[in-house]
## 1
Amino acid sequence: MSDPVRVAVVGGGYGSKVALPVYAELEEFQPVAAWSRRPERARELAEQAGLELGTADLDELLRFPGLEAVHIATPVVTHREFAGAVVDRGLHLLCEKPLADDLAAAREISTASRRAGVVAAVNYGRRFEETRRRLLQRGREVLGSPRLASVSLVFADHADPRSRPWTWVHDATLGGGRLQGYGVHDLDLLLELFPDVEAVAAATEVTVAQRIADDGELRPVSAEDTFAILLRFRGGGLGVVSFVATARHDRGDVVEIHGAEGTVRLDADGRLSWGRSGEELQVEGPLSSSPQEAFKHVARRFWASIREGAAPDPSLDEALRVQALFDAVRTADVERRWVRPERVAG
Ligand SMILES: NC(=O)c1ccc[n+]([C@@H]2O[C@H](COP(=O)([O-])OP(=O)(O)OC[C@H]3O[C@@H](n4cnc5c(N)ncnc54)[C@H](OP(=O)(O)O)[C@@H]3O)[C@@H](O)[C@H]2O)c1
């Protein structure tokens, strides 16, 4: 492998736990710089990963000599400004999901990246986890048109105000909430199989209203920890996407899709079942749901887009498709009615 891409990571959460270690492992990349909001944390990130620069100054990072690409992994409301600054400097962009906090902001990022002529991709990496990748493969083989598609996630990590500290994820004004955290991945998964959603209904709840902050004080939670989404596919069939972070008993992900021709089911232990009408279900697994392995696919494809002109995967058009649905879900929740998602190219 020749010619690694010199990449910087902006954000010390997912950015330091998944993105940086994967870039360091892959020969396609040379990680050179990291950004955190706090200078001391930025220096720590750089030291730990052996990078040339750790900074809290985004401009300094973007001016780093020889830098070619930037991975943005910061709160959702910051994506438009940060991603805009990246592409305006002619640097390639890998942005965390969701691309932005609404469709208009996501379109701005997409337009700016096209204008700059850079490669731009978005990390809807969960669909490349082995569990979900195989589910999509088998689903395409056996399902046919949708009858009922259900994705249900159950976690207990937010069940008490002290079980997880308050961060931007608990603040709706910073683009927090579990819809941005998990729901968009699950909408992306269903769109991969059934891209034509006619309308959505949705409800969100904050079921644990306060959370302990780093200073020991309880702070109010304004972003949902629980949601239920109902989708109506054009031409027939329903989808149900539900999530709770405050359950008393953890379970994980269960995906079950009934099509006109067959069935696929992913159990919480990573076992996949599938079959056509009239057949016994076949079973494989348990399969891996490693986020690192999933991100390797996204990162390698990002490299191939930069060096070989491959199409980014996931692309910004796919990000806009999810974003249109995400906007419709938000409107449906607030206005308590069925909403048709805006049609977007791609
Ligand atoms: N693809 C995936 O599977 C996946 C998984 C997890 C997260 N994500 C995405 O990654 C992005 C970041 O999420 P995360 O969980 O990594 O977040 P995080 O750990 O809470 O924070 C990430 C970075 O943002 C900084 N930050 C926190 N609050 C900020 C604010 N108000 N203004 C500016 N910067 C702020 C943090 O600063 P400090 O360094 O000072 O703490 C940190 O460097 C989101 O878009 C999220 O959806 C994606």
Note: The chain has two domains: 5-125+292-314, 130-289.
## 2
Amino acid sequence: MPELPEVETVVRTLKQAVKDCKIVQVDIYWNNIIVGDIQVFKSSLIGQSFRRFKRRGKYIIFELDDCSLLSHLRMEGKYFIKDCTDKKEKHEHVIFTLDNGKTLRYHDTRKFGKMEVIPKSKDYVQLKNLGVEPLSHKLNETYVSNYIKNTKQCMKQLLLDQSFIAGIGNIYADEILFRMKVHPKKIAKELTPQEIIDLVYYTKHVLKGAIRAGGTTIRSYTSSLGITGRFQLKLKVHMRKNEPCYLCKEKIVKEVVAQRGTYYCPRCQSL
Ligand SMILES: [Zn+2]
């Protein structure tokens, strides 16, 4: 599943590829991807140009002249830029034809992704309950200590909680906990002052590193222009079941925590 670094990479790549391009046609092949009325979706977008590209948590926000297009990739969503004349592939469900002869294609093997047009005057209700952006100054020690006072969550749940920090998913939650040397089942409320400092530091550190590397690729994830697999080798714990820990050589364990397959080192991250 694309997490913050992958979504950020998609946003940056699309900005370079389609900024100021005008949408001349919209073809939808799987209606459930669109939230709201299909005809309104099409008519709102045709004639509009992509102006600004933003990200909030794992949401992509395309700002056009008179509205915004909000897109969430969920499990497997990705974008491709192709020529108009390229054959439509099986999993391409929404195709935007642009005025430069190119098409922006939304590809989703699982069909869980969502797109919605938001009129300019309206707020993004979808984004209302999202927690702080991890790379902003709002993620700091004070914020974390106040938040954990009121939660019963364990650490893995906390990091996956989008109303705490927006944009972290299963992969980076494991990577952050490994660097903090904190067990995924540790009760968040019991973090020490030093562990709170580490949480803030390593969250930013891990996510920045992944953005720099162009997003992680696991299984089918491809960023918009077919960039694949560059960061995978740098994962220190996720997907390393039974392999030796890079710090202590103990075998990495995989266990279900917070309903997600969770990888950790039982020695470095003891409870
Ligand atoms: Zn270890």
Note: The beta strands are 23-28, 52-56, 59-63, 67-72, 78-83, 92-98, 102-107, 114-119, 253-257, 260-264.
## 3
Amino acid sequence: MIQRRQFLTAAAISPAMAALPARAADDYARPFDAPYAPVLSQPSREIRTVVGLRPYRGSGFRLEHEKFGRRDVIHNYGHGGCGVTLSWGCAQLAVELAEGLDERRAAVIGAGVNGLTTALLLLRRGYEVSVYGAALPPHTTSNIAGAYWHPTTLFDGLDAVSEAFLAQFRRAARIANRAFQHLANDPAYGVYYMRYLGLREEPPLRARTPYYEGDDLYAGLAVEINPERYFGYGYVERHHALMIDPDIYLRALMRDVENAGGRIVQKSFETTDDVFDLKEKLIFNCTGLGARALFGDETLGPARGQLTMLLPQPEVDYGYVHGTPDGYLYMFPRKGAILLGGTVEMGDWSLEPSETERIRMIDGHAMIAQRIADAAKAKKS
Ligand SMILES: Cc1cc2nc3c(=O)[nH]c(=O)nc-3n(C[C@H](O)[C@H](O)[C@H](O)COP(=O)(O)OP(=O)(O)OC[C@H]3O[C@@H](n4cnc5c(N)ncnc54)[C@H](O)[C@@H]3O)c2cc1C
């Protein structure tokens, strides 16, 4: 382990890296053959390690209207590992579910990305809206998200979901992708494009299947099988990804909700009866994992994820994912940090960071960085 770290330190100060240009604010979507700056994956650069619980349902998110006496509840929760990704689309579908109802005053329970986006769409349709959240940004799970635009960790497989869900999912993904495109590169929202590489040592045994949401949502999508091109990896699926920096983005969403006349209130509900004490009769349930206790959905559970944040490197303008025998490794650059991730532990409620995983990430990403540094050196000589 020590050897790997020393190796990387040497790479960090190599002339190949020093020659890499700094990233300009409007230069995120660089061509795939532009240089790749290695990540300085070392314990001395760690800012923090955090754990978040993705709200996971084997049958996919719940977007449904349920009647409780005189109350109408629209559920919009359970988005697993892609709640930011799908937010605009699921919010749009949730708001459509209320279309036949007369009520024009709505309570949104939940102030994560799904609650705030739903609130914003309701406000734009002329509703009077109050958002209630036990936690407000920056303390929600949405603030922990990567957040790479990609529907993933959402359901157990095609056998576990209904046709109706798949139709909702595809429509939500396409609406959401378009909405984020319109926000890209506006510094107020922290949404931008980035080169993204799916790195594999070998081609997969089966040919790739197109994304259910549509391959056309991934700009520049292509498969490369030339190991010389990508640091010795024998199979690379690449595209220009949409990235959302959640700290910047959720702050902007809060501001948009308030500027549109919405009220955001910090408030926790113990039971559904507490919710029904609110004066609003139309309720949007956007409580993420909280819906398990609040609305008794036992099919909802945690998909635990751990992230290690390193000091930012403005020259790192790409992200990647790499599967290893010990688990996944992914890296996304944010303005305020380099984010290292790669864990999905179903049913694990622990919010304590795992030291084993922290070391696996720092060392695993250091190995990838070393390959990137070596490839740059070989190109120069
Ligand atoms: C490590 C990790 C990496 C991830 N990476 C990505 C990614 O790359 N891309 C992506 O799209 N997604 C990613 N996700 C998933 C994403 O974070 C979630 O899907 C998303 O945050 C869910 O948003 P939400 O608004 O539904 O829930 P939350 O953000 O959890 O918000 C729920 C809100 O409801 C409130 N609430 C809950 N219960 C109650 C109650 N009883 N009373 C009052 N309020 C209540 C909470 O306080 C909070 O305000 C990742 C998640 C993790 C953990």
Note: Confidence is low (pLDDT under 50) at residues 1-26.
